[in-house]
Amino acid sequence: MAIRSSQQRKLVKDMAMFFAEIGEIPRPREYEKLPNRPFGARLREINRVVGSWQSLLTKMEKDHPDLWDLIHKPAEKEPSALEKLSAGKTEV
Prior knowledge:
The chain is mainly α and 92 residues long. The chain has one domain (5-71). It is built from six helices and no strands. α1 packs across α4 and α1 packs parallel to α5. It is elongated. The protein starts with a helix and ends with a helix. The model has no long low-confidence stretch (mean pLDDT 85).
């Protein structure tokens, strides 16, 4: 069965959305163990449709730069409880 470019585009978009949702790109074996991965997007299917994991990432970066930036955006550091307490104190 020939792979259609529409299949590739849909898979790349679904994967980009998923990675943006979890906030990182896991290694292929880690991805395979995730319980909430997109339906029909097993590692074997990704390799069949796109070619390889690296090809998926390359297409994702090229076709969806906004999602790519969202995935690689550094996580905002939340202040610790001690920092919150010290920030709340007022000088007397």
